[in-house]
Amino acid sequence: MSNPVFLLSAAGAVLLALAFVVVPLLRGRNQAVLLATILFVPAATLAIYFFVGTPNGIDPDTGETGQIRSAVTDLAERAMREPDNAEHWARLGLAYKSLEEFGSAEHAFRRALYIDPEAGFLKAELGETLLYASGERQLPDEARRLLSEAADGGNQKALWLLGLDAFQRDAFPTAVERFERLLAVLPPDSNVRDTVEQYLATARAGGSRQTTNSGPQETSGPTLSLSVGIAESLATRLEGGETVFVAVRRAAGGPPLAVRRLRANQLPVELTIDDGDAMMAGSGLSSADSIVVVARVSFSGDATPQSGDFEGRTDILPVNATNMNAEVTIDQVL
């Protein structure tokens, strides 16, 4: 309880409540009742707060997520004040995307792109947002179109995503073309050159060195054996055709490392997840120090959480080089 403004306000409210009770008692000269009231009311207030209230809510979230949410509020206000400023909407979209609120990010990027329809950066960001919102490993049609337009202008992210998409579809000539163009615009000291060159070499070989369907991966990487179930009280409320997303995320936050899309009638299910399931090359299990697995029943079919969805998540799991085991039970209603 470190917020002095809150404490002063709370103390004032308690004193005001005491005044309404104490003044009549003073007139009645009932000293015993007066003393009991002075002691009981503040004590009862604190007790109710600590046992029923949310003491932790006094202190704002001072972590990275709290800072981003604070920035979102400021950015949204700026965007509303200057609705024709594409930069405000773009920054708002980036903030929402970092919070994994992909529906809001999509709206902001679309607004920015409406204002500046030729901006390759905006097309690439919107395309990537649509990919994450889909919960799939392959690009949605609109995302592929937006990224192709951005790639024509030399956007590096667009070339990378299009190259990966072609690689995963075994369209190796297209992948070669995308990766070659990307290498041509990457700085010589870029820390992703080695990864791009590995993918390019594999694509040139027609995928012959591919060990999984997502790219050249090391088979010695970590493997997660995961059991996904649902509480019986929630299972009885499902018809069976609802979409279930199982997402592996860094414990620190950010876009999902891997996503599996299931149907509710497949639960309970046993899954094995490794670097071959990475949404993005170089961002699989082995790229994280610790992870959290989130399983969610999406009634809308959208990867973005909605009110009323069912969800469950694991505790933080340290990533190691050996097999990992975890269980996640969907037992909460958002």
From TrEMBL:
- Domain named Cytochrome c-type biogenesis protein H Ig-like: which ranges? 224-331
Q: Where is the composition biased (Polar residues)?
A: 208-224
User: Which ranges carry the Cytochrome c-type biogenesis protein H TPR domain?
Assistant: 79-191
List residue spans for each TPR repeat. Answer: 86-119
Q: Which GO terms describe its biological process?
A: cytochrome complex assembly
One Pfam family here: Ig_CycH
Q: Which residues form the signal peptide?
A: none
Does the keyword field hold Transcription regulation? no
- Could you list the residue ranges that cross the membrane? 6-26, 33-52
User: Which PROSITE patterns does the annotation name?
Assistant: TPR
Q: Which parts of this chain are annotated as the region Disordered?
A: 203-224
* Keywords of this entry: Cytochrome c-type biogenesis, Membrane, Repeat, TPR repeat, Transmembrane, Transmembrane helix
Q: Which SUPFAM superfamilies does the annotation name?
A: TPR-like
**Protein name per its UniProtKB record:** Uncharacterized protein
Source organism of the structure: Wenzhouxiangella sediminis
Q: Lineage, please?
A: Bacteria, Pseudomonadati, Pseudomonadota, Gammaproteobacteria, Chromatiales
